[in-house]
């Protein structure tokens, strides 16, 4: 007898429940802002990736409405079949100009961008070497390829060099890393990684989901932070769903990259394009970050203030240097308890435990944004002090 769907569902859910891993997202009753309402409570929001406060920004909403009126609610079909809207083409040129790259292509999310680009570029006989802490969408993207897959130790150029030396190939060689790592908030040592990659003729592929809108001049990204924006052997991918306030992903780099992806990236070929309102919001986001330098200043002022105050209170933030600010609570139950108590104090910040992060390093991940006021952060810090003392962490 075949397994019934109800058996499969109840067994899997019971397994997750017993392991304490069953997740249900909290429900927001107001827009994704620095202060919002979650499950009936007014909270300071430290859980989102809304780095620049664009998720509910008036200029993004105005442009989204304008594009909605002018271009409609939907894109109609896959771009190679029904034709591509002018606004998609214009937006891609805007990204390439912003990133100083030869070309850029937009896909539906950061997740599908990794799948589409890695799947399109890598072939049998190629070698891809990936940081051990790279994001799940990179891991899934690499599973779609027939390239030989190897891993190097997190942010370790010497280990990367060892792996490249031990695996010579005539095929394309690609080094893959996140720009900013989403759990620890550390930055890939791109200057050293690119130097090693170049010794072996390898291309460097940077997933800058958490670096776009955060790192580099005007939030142009981690690749810009390290000065590699004009390099043809560096591919930048990232999401338009975090700092840029909408949803989508981009790939930017070599002048021919876009044309190849149009022909080979499966999400481009088989999935309908981004809705016009989203294109409008994102185009406005790119304009706004260049027009208003105070956005980046506030993001980094807030980041420095929040980290310094957490250190002064005695918390361990794992050496994070970006707005992603982990606070270590040890084992998972302590982190989850801390998250519950912070919520009772009006602070929304998620607890993360094994297997998302290593055992003993369970944490609360806080994300500081440009939209937080000093008062928001001070409220969060006094809640942290109270909860940290009650749980014996500080
Ligand atoms: N790459 C990294 C490093 C990420 O953190 C994320 C988001 N969790 C993604 C890709 C996926 O981006 P998106 O949410 O746009 O699918």
TrEMBL record:
It holds the Pfam family Aminotran_1_2. It comes from the Bacteria. Its EC number is 2.3.1.29. CDD domains: KBL_like. Keywords: Acyltransferase, Pyridoxal phosphate, Transferase. GO terms for molecular function: glycine C-acetyltransferase activity. Its cofactor is pyridoxal 5'-phosphate. Residues 43-382 form the Aminotransferase class I/classII large domain. InterPro entries: Aminotrans_II_pyridoxalP_BS, Aminotransferase_I/II_large, AON_synthase_class-II, AONS_Archaea/Firmicutes, PyrdxlP-dep_Trfase, PyrdxlP-dep_Trfase_major, PyrdxlP-dep_Trfase_small. Coiled coil: none annotated. Homodimer. PANTHER family: CLASS II AMINOTRANSFERASE/8-AMINO-7-OXONONANOATE SYNTHASE, LD36009P. Belongs to the class-II pyridoxal-phosphate-dependent aminotransferase family. This is Glycine C-acetyltransferase. It comes from Deinococcus enclensis.
């Amino acid at each position: 007898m075949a397994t019934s769907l109800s058996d499969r569902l109840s067994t899997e859910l019971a397994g997750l429940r017993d392991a304490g891993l069953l997740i249900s997202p909290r429900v927001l009753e107001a827009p994704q802002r620095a202060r919002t309402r979650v499950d009936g409570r007014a909270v300071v929001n430290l859980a989102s990736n809304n780095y620049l406060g664009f998720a509910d920004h008036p200029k993004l909403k105005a442009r989204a409405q304008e594009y909605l009126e002018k271009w409609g609610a939907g894109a109609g079909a896959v771009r190679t079949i029904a034709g591509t809207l002018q606004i998609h083409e214009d937006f891609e040129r805007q990204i390439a100009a912003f990133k100083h790259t030869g070309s850029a292509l937009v896909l539906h999310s950061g997740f599908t961008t990794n799948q589409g680009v890695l799947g399109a570029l890598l072939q049998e006989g190629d070698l891809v070497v990936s940081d051990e802490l790279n994001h799940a969408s990179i891991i899934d993207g690499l599973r779609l390829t027939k390239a030989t897959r190897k891993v190097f130790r997190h942010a370790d150029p010497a280990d990367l060099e060892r792996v490249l030396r031990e695996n010579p190939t005539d095929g394309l060689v690609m080094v893959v890393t996140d720009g900013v790592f989403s759990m620890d908030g550390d930055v890939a040592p791109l200057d050293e990684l690119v130097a090693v990659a170049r010794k072996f003729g390898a291309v460097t592929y940077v997933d800058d989901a958490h670096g776009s809108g955060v790192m580099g001049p005007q939030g142009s990204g981690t690749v810009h932070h390290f000065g590699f924006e004009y390099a043809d052997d560096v591919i930048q991918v990232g999401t338009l769903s975090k700092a840029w306030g909408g949803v989508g992903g981009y790939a930017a780099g070599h002048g021919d990259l876009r044309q190849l992806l149009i022909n080979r990236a499966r999400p481009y070929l088989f999935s309908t394009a981004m809705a016009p309102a989203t294109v409008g919001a994102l185009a406005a986001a790119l304009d706004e970050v260049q027009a208003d330098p105070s956005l980046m200043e506030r993001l980094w002022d807030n980041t420095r203030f929040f980290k310094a105050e957490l250190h002064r209170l005695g918390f361990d933030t794992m050496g994070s240097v970006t707005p992603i600010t982990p606070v270590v609570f040890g084992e998972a139950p302590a982190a989850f308890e801390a998250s519950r108590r912070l919520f009772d104090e009006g602070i929304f910040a998620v607890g993360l435990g094994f297997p998302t992060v290593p055992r003993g390093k369970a944490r609360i991940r806080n994300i500081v944004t440009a939209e937080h006021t000093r008062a928001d952060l001070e409220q969060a810090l006094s809640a942290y002090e109270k909860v940290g003392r009650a749980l014996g962490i500080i």
